[in-house]
Amino acid sequence: MWWGSRMVRERAGGAAGTGRRIVVRREFGGGDLPGLRLLADGCAALAGLAGPRRGDFVVAVDAVAGNAVRHGGGRGVLVLSRTPEELECRVTDRGPGFAEDAVPPPGPGGGCGLWVARLVSDRLTVACGPSGSAVTLAMRLSGDPAPVAHGRGSPG
Question: 23, 82 in Cβ contact below 8 A?
């Protein structure tokens, strides 16, 4: 499937035996965000995410990619991968980084992208280093959100 001139399809990735398959890898800038939303939606549909879960995945991908553009140097790299259990999105950038516990709740003037991504995804992690940041989010393919502490699902 053709998604754009900077898209590269890969089959390798992940540790041996994990069943992880990289579906797409794409470099992006601010003008590419609408195309990334379409890309995320298409990959989510092919992975079997339907209805609200598919929309949640697209919203989360858009929020994380938008943050990479706004706060991470204007560009990023999106990698969508799949295991038998989940669809994962990893966005890396060259920004200064931040701590995962520094993800703010929504407030006046914006600042809610990562908060929303954490709320709607089943897993969200942040890793920062001297060369930039990596935000990884995932949605379970079973259709049932995983019970997690960051607001998805309810206890009990």
Answer: yes
DSSP 19-75: --EEEEEEEEEGGGHHHHHHHHHHHHHHHT--HHHHHHHHHHHHHHHHHHHHHTTSE
**CB atoms closer than 10 angstroms to residue 46:** 12
Degrees to nearest 5, angle at CA 136 with 131 and 142: 165
> pLDDT tens across 78-99, in order?
999 999 999 999 999 998 877 6
Model confidence, pTM: 0.78
Nearest to 122 by CA among 95, 144, 91, 96: 144
Give 100's Cβ-side CA count (13 Å radius).
14
Distance CA 153, CA 43 (A): 24
Task: Tell me the pairing of strands 132-140 and 75-82.
Answer: unpaired
Name the nearest CA neighbour of 27 among 57, 56, 69, 63: 69
CA dist 106 and 58 (Å) reads 19
